[in-house]
Every structure is written in structure tokens, then in C-alpha cells.
Amino acid sequence: MTLHQVPGRLVTIADVAREAQVGESTVSRVLRGQGSYSKRAGERVLEAAARLGYVPNRLAGSLAGNADSVGSQLVGVVIPSLTNIVFPDLLRGLTGDLDTTGFQSVIGVSDYDPAREETLVESLLSWRPSALVLTGLEHTALTVTRLRAAGIRIVEMIDTDGPGLDIVVGFSNRAVGHASARHLIERGYRRIGYVGHDLSQDLRAAKRFAGFEAALREAGLSLHSQELVFDRSSAAVGRAALEALMARAPDTDAVYFSNDDMALGGYFGCLGRGWAVPGRVALFGCHALDITAAMPQPLSTMRTPRLEIGRAAARSLADGAPAGTIDLGFELCQGATA
Amino acid sequence: MTLHQVPGRLVTIADVAREAQVGESTVSRVLRGQGSYSKRAGERVLEAAARLGYVPNRLAGSLAGNADSVGSQLVGVVIPSLTNIVFPDLLRGLTGDLDTTGFQSVIGVSDYDPAREETLVESLLSWRPSALVLTGLEHTALTVTRLRAAGIRIVEMIDTDGPGLDIVVGFSNRAVGHASARHLIERGYRRIGYVGHDLSQDLRAAKRFAGFEAALREAGLSLHSQELVFDRSSAAVGRAALEALMARAPDTDAVYFSNDDMALGGYFGCLGRGWAVPGRVALFGCHALDITAAMPQPLSTMRTPRLEIGRAAARSLADGAPAGTIDLGFELCQGATA
DNA sequence: ATATAAATTGGCAGCGCTGCCAAAACATCA
DNA sequence: TGATGTTTTGGCAGCGCTGCCAATTTATAT
């Protein structure tokens, strides 16, 4: 068997029409189950299509069908990363619910770079998707202009702290940060540190941090120590950062991590050094990764509804939801590390 | 500002042509930087396109351009899951290298279900992608027929244990299993157990298991105990399974997990019960997730080149590699748990 | 200045499909 | 039986773009 063996054209609707001895329009109607046609025509067409191995060409279909009727059945998705498990979870919810509605997702990964997002949006738009799903509320001016001009539905996921372009689905990162700080304060911690990755990149983490600091201030406290890392978030990085932080400010009694994977790394660091958690230092993460629930001491963290956000995004598009914000909230996971 | 405000048509190439006072073909040539055109024409077109906010319509472009020249610039991707971090890693390598070549990925998640894969392939094919990237070598007969008839490049990722349709990129799962068993045997373990998720679903895991058992047999051993789980692989599931296995066969001295996340869960279980690892029981995983390297005792596991597989898949398509298998191998991570 | 080669350009068919419309086939009623 | 309404059907334009080709402009050689 040879690849590329197909010499010329693939089977078209005209071939099926000839084979079934009906007109092209009839084939089109039967195959889409739209409009009226006789039972006999239906059978012949289906039979002929199967025999010929007809595969519809959706490029042609979307081009011909006026955008308003079906749209391209493509949905563009831009996420900042695939490394951070948060985003695959989002995707999972999104694609899972999207393809039950017959949509296909075209995805792009921006690497937390607004310029890259701009390029991706431009590129995705050229497929005339019926909707675009983005992450976060911050986009370049040009991206916003293009999005507006496209005249399609836009969903911005994850962050509800600010105005969106159309549909916004997520939770308040600020509130997550705030609630995390409140929890630590209520548990009696006072010399609280922060370990996070580059805040100028991950704007959601920055908002959590802002909420966190605000809660400290409201309680008459301030951040006791902090360690920022400029790598992509990972357990190894979290571990190193915690160790650096504790070396500089050994009396820190609790640490807030911008992400569970770093918190997990921090926890491993404590285990390795024989530090009691939370005796020596308390640890608090964010996102409630599955793994952290299986730990001997479950990590204290905040559950964010990632899968649900993806699902809600898909559903809002399918249902033609009105513009507006859908806040899915978050939930404290008490855990045993803070 | 209203969404859907665009009343009628979007800007087309004809609009740009009129604005720039050149012919449509010239616009097309300039915008694609193909063929020859004067400097002056180039400037006018670019300027007009920018002023009008022209967004090319790739549906039309791909339809018009004969498949052989550019193809649709879409690549269809089918992965079994987004939960298992293995697949986002694959995607990351793939999309990262793909969009530097101007390709966009349309993805589908099959949930380890061949029938679902069949549907997804059918659906993806209708976008006339220039290539399809699948996971694994096993597909339904109809899928294979369709793939062959499509006349496009096919990449099958991850598994090299068998014949592929066109390009195969991955490693030998059988060999991974075999090498894992060899390692345990060489380290002196004799009463070896297995914890894995449903082997009828995850065919790669099944092949690893087969290689593992073969190595045991060759050494005159047999599997001492095993515990299969039918949930999706996770740390919690791994922990529970290990505990169940140790309850049934307390003298098991080493356990092979089909996946690192389960191994990690198992490790947590041991920590929780105060069992020495590897004193009480040794643990060996698969895939070398990032996290496991940050553990106080790094997990003993097998590093599989997931990112590289995605990259190699993208590259082989971009370069028009010949049909064949690219084996990227794997690497033992000695770790400290086995 | 003229002939010839090279670069640039626009027109138009056609990619495969769907929407529209008028024609044909069938059903219903007086 | 003919008239009227209803369902089914096929033809054809056109979605926005690119490939091809012939026409035009420009550069080079004689």
C-alpha cells in the first residue's frame, strides 16, 4: 500500500449525486438531514455515499453556507500553557462539551505572551471560527480590535476580575488570594511569605497575590518574605524557592504558593529537611491538583473549578448565552499543611 | 459596543484590491509573498489591507489552492486523554513546533475509545487537514480505511511496537516494561507486584505490562501480585491500589506502576503508613513526571521522551520525512525508591 | 532607436459546497 | 376529470480565494 496513492480528486458531492442518480442539492439535503426529500432518495444517497467513501469537505461547506447559518463549526482556543495542569483541565472541559455539539477546537498556545496571543488570534480568525475562547481578560489593543471586528462570540476564561469583551467564565483570582490570606491569618500565622512565579507574565497569579496582600494589610500585617521565580512553575522550582526563602527569612511561619505544583515541591523540601509542616512552616497552595489530595498530609489549598469553567464556556456558546460574567467560585480545601 | 455588530460581509480580497487600486491576484500575491510584484504594489496592498483590517479567509484559500500546494494548513490531532499529563506534553511539543511552520492543530480527545477515535477521524478529515496525528497503532478497520483513502500524511505517536500506517514516532513500550523489570530484578527484588489501570483501554500500558512479565519469565520469576484499577489513573487511585495490593500480598517487595501519578500515590501511601521505601516495599513508576524529581526520595522511573515525540512528529511532517519509525528511546531514572 | 527578454499585472475559471428558485412529481379535493 | 395545494427535485449562482494565462509594462541588448 502506498501513501499519497490517491491520484486526483477525492470523492465530491457531484460523484455521489451521479452514483445515486439524484441532483447535488438532494445529496446535500440528505447528508445534512435538512430540507425535505423522499425516503427513496435518502436511501440511495446514503448508500452511494457509503459505497464511494464520501467525506464531506467542510471547508467548502463553511464557505458556501452563510456564516450565520452554521458558522464554520470551528472554535478557536488560546491558552497560555500546557505545562500548568490548569490549562489541560480547562481544555478537557471545553472540548468534551464542545464536540457533543459538533464543534471542533483549533488550539493555540501563547506561552503567556500577549504578542503571541495577538498572532494566534489573527491566525485563528482566518479560519472563520464561530467563536473564540481565550484565557484571561488582558489582551493587546490590536487583539481587542480584531476580536471586535470579527463579529463572533468571545469567551474569556478563568478570570472574572474585570470587564470582558463578551462572555466571561471563571472565578475571582483576587478573591482567591484574599481568602487564602484570611485562612492563614485565622489559623494564627503572622509571618507570612510568598513564593510565586513571574507575576508580570501570569496575570492571574498577580491578581491572587494582590488579593492576598490586601487581606494582610486589612489585618494590619504585611508580607514577611517573598521569593519570585522566573522559570515555569514546577515542583523543583517551588522546592528551591522555598528553601531560598527560608534561608533568608527563617522565621517565616507560613508560605503562600502561587500554584500547587510549587507548593508540592516546597512540601517535599520540608520533608527532605525534616521540617514539620505546619509546625516549622505552614504551606498553602492554589488550584487543588488531584495529587495533593493523596498526600499523607493533604495540601491546604484552594479548589478552583477548572473543568467546570471549560464546560460552562462550551455550554454558553452552544446555548447562545447573553454577554456577561459567569462566576463559578472556588472552595477552600482545608488540608493539613496550613 | 455591541457584539455581532458587523452587519454584512467581512472585508474580502476584492475590497483590498479596489482600495489599493490593483487586481485581486496582485493582492493575493503580495499577501502571500509569492510570485512577483513591484515594490509599489506591495506597499499599496499592505497599506490598504491594514487600513481595512483585512483578515484572509483560509477556508476559501485552502479550498482554492489545490491540496498539493499548501494543503489546508490544518493538522488534525487525536489524543486519548488530557488527564494523563503524558498527552499534554505530547501536544506541547507538537503544537510548539507546528505553529512555527504555520500550521494550526485541530484536536480531538478520544477517551481511549476506538469508536470515538473513529468518529473524530471522520470529523477531522472533513476539514481536509494536510496531516493527521494519532496516538498509538491500534485503530478500527474503518478508521484505517478512511486514513488510507484520505491520501494525507499520518503520524502515530508514542508506540513503536508494531507496524504503522505512515510515520511512527515514539518508543517501545514493551521495551520500557522489559527494562523496568530488569532493573527491579537486578536490584534484587523477587516478589514483584503490579499496579495498573485498565489494560484493555490503555494499550500502551498493556504493552509495557507484557514486556514486564516477559522479563520476569526470562528470569524464572512470575508476577507475585497485582491490582488493576478501572478508574482513570491518578495519585489517589494509585495509593488505594497499593494499599489493597499490600493487604492481599504483604510480602510483595517491589511494585511496578503503570504510571508515575499512581506510583506517587503509592509512595504517599507508604509515607502515611510509615513504611520504608524501598525497605518495606520498592516502588517503580513510568514516565518520569517532573514532580517526581523534586521528591525527597526521587521516584525510580523511566523517562519517556514525550516532548521530543511531539516535536519529532511536527518536524517529520514539516520536512516531509519518509514513512517509517522514529524510535526516540527512553531512559532509566535511578531515583531512590527502587 | 528598435528588437527581444524579463518582470509585473489583471481577468477569469473553478475549488466543493449550500441557498435560492422554479420545475416536476405527487396528493387532495371538488 | 381537472384544478389546486404540497412535497420533492435539480440547476445554477456564488461564498473568497488561488492558479493559470495572456496582456501589459519595464529592462536590456543591439
TrEMBL record, chains A, B:
CDD domains: HTH_LacI, PBP1_GntR. SUPFAM superfamilies: lambda repressor-like DNA-binding domains (SSF47413), Periplasmic binding protein-like I (SSF53822). InterPro entries: HTH_LacI, Lambda_DNA-bd_dom_sf, Peripla_BP/Lac1_sug-bd_dom, Peripla_BP_I. It holds the Pfam family LacI. It comes from the Bacteria. Residues 11-65 form the HTH lacI-type domain. The keyword Transmembrane does not apply. Keywords: DNA-binding, Transcription, Transcription regulation. This is HTH-type transcriptional regulator GntR.
